[in-house]
């Protein structure tokens, strides 16, 4: 297994680089308490996240023009609050806006910054996330993620796993698809990238969905590279 | 003069952050010599650059769909070579491609990296250049420019000084125009940004066009801030 000929590593971010569940729960906890909700913050994070794919599917299907993720997250927040016993119409919009920025303040997995810093010595490194540019930029600045550029859905104007998200990213990099490797904790994302000709590296994140996680614990295809974390990924590449 | 309320500094790049004329001349010199041209490398850089605005005007006018700058530079190279006594049809395309990457390998002005590094402590910093994403990314990686994100024409799908280039950049940053400040060595760029509501900082680069430069030596409006270089700009902002 090697990545010969690869010049750019692009990364899934939610789950692969950052721990979205803990971060959203941490930010939601004081909000829920303040509004008298008994909802468990981690369960609230899961519920908010469950609306993520259906919201993007509206765009992928063409039923809705491209809309950036901050807007979808904000709509999804209003949709999920009643399940936590909170009427969004009774919360000041500025407070909802502030909670929506939870997604900008997620912590990286412990190996992420060190691994990315090593990988950056040889490769162009960039997010290929469904998160929008300012979300990724705020997150990187807070967490010290040393990206060379911010790529992803808003730049490609397409949400993964639509082929355009991968192919336009390679085109923007002025590279052939096989010169670009997607690093992700999700087999489905890697499968879509491989169908477009990208190389693939799997880094499992077995607690992304909490201690009971059953999905994406192991590779379901022979990906070009498999590593336990980003530091091992760098070491496997001789960095 | 201050920039109160500003959260992002966006930068013109060619001329403001990097010395394009010296860099292109340095890269063109061995090419010209190899092909028996007696053209002066700096004059060749000027001639190549003179075709920059007309090429973008084809896009701004709507006569041509958005086309990234690497492609325009490559076309302009073929157009300008005959004036240097070189028939582009007799040069291997890979050699023209390589020379076209001269624009990816420009050196920053001596104060640029130090100034940007200080400014980054408080502001989101990003290029708002007509250069495309991979051009800006390659340049930053080689030169150590510590951008938080790569913005500009390819992300906004519009070439400066079209208003969309500035307004879409603010929208992508999820900021009001007055929360964004353009830093540029060109009065015309700043004037266009101001018409869109952005704040403005002028940093003259009196040798961008060589020792005989007559343009943009001083501010022609009361810009929000004027500084001699990026380190002074940082100092003026208390950084």
UniProtKB/TrEMBL annotation, chains A, B:
InterPro entries to which the protein is assigned, alphabetical: 2-HAD (IPR006328), HAD-like_sf (IPR036412), HAD-SF_hydro_IA (IPR006439), HAD_sf (IPR023214), S-2-haloacid_dehalogenase (IPR051540)
Domain of life: Bacteria
Pfam families per record: Hydrolase (PF00702)
Keywords: Hydrolase
A GO molecular-function descriptor: hydrolase activity, acting on acid halide bonds, in C-halide compounds
PANTHER family membership: HALOACID DEHALOGENASE, TYPE II (AFU_ORTHOLOGUE AFUA_2G07750)-RELATED (PTHR43316:SF3), HYDROLASE, HALOACID DELAHOGENASE-RELATED (PTHR43316)
Entry protein name: 2-haloacid dehalogenase
Source species of the chain: Muricoccus roseus
